[in-house]
Amino acid sequence: MTLLIDCYNLLHVPMPPSLAGLDEAWLCRLLARSRYRSGGIVVVCDGVAKPGGPNESAVPEVDLVFSGPARSADDVIVALVHKHSAPRRLTVVSNDRQIQKAARRRRARISTCEQLVHELLHGDGDSSDRTDDGKPGPQTLSDEQVGYWSAQFGVDPQMPIDGD
Hints:
By secondary structure, the protein is α/β, with parallel strands linked by helices. The protein has one domain: Rossmann fold, CATH 3.40.50. Helix content is 34%, strand content 13%. It has six helices and five strands; from the N terminus they run E-H-H-E-E-H-E-H-E-H-H. The protein has helices at residues 7-11, 24-32, 73-83, 97-105, 113-122, 143-153; strands spanning 2-6, 41-45, 62-66, 90-93, 109-111. Strands 3-2-1-4-5 form a five-stranded parallel beta sheet, with helices on both faces. Helix 3 packs parallel to helix 4. It is elongated.
């Protein structure tokens, strides 16, 4: 099953604290560990890559696509839905009504952004991400995330912590 995601639509829904700061790169890594990893995942973003941000996915299971300066991500997603050779095997993730309408016309599955966030947190993720009692295990922050949160809190990530 192919998963087609409206990236910024998803990133702008209210997130639980464990996903605070979710960005394109982190989303791609989460998706690569999801049940969709073997079916093909396309994450579509508006515009062009942000300076210092990823311009492609760091994981091979996920394609990160930018719409470019002249098109919206919505236009790209609708075109991909129309072009897909097996739309009944396609799941489109967006809260945008235009995108959902295009997916319905082709009989693709539709998921809301909130449904996918819930599934990424509680669904069919790798058991290696869970502790013995089935709860999510500790999350490791990427260097990008450490840099982001260090800048937000004015902390030097290289500074030793008291007691070290």
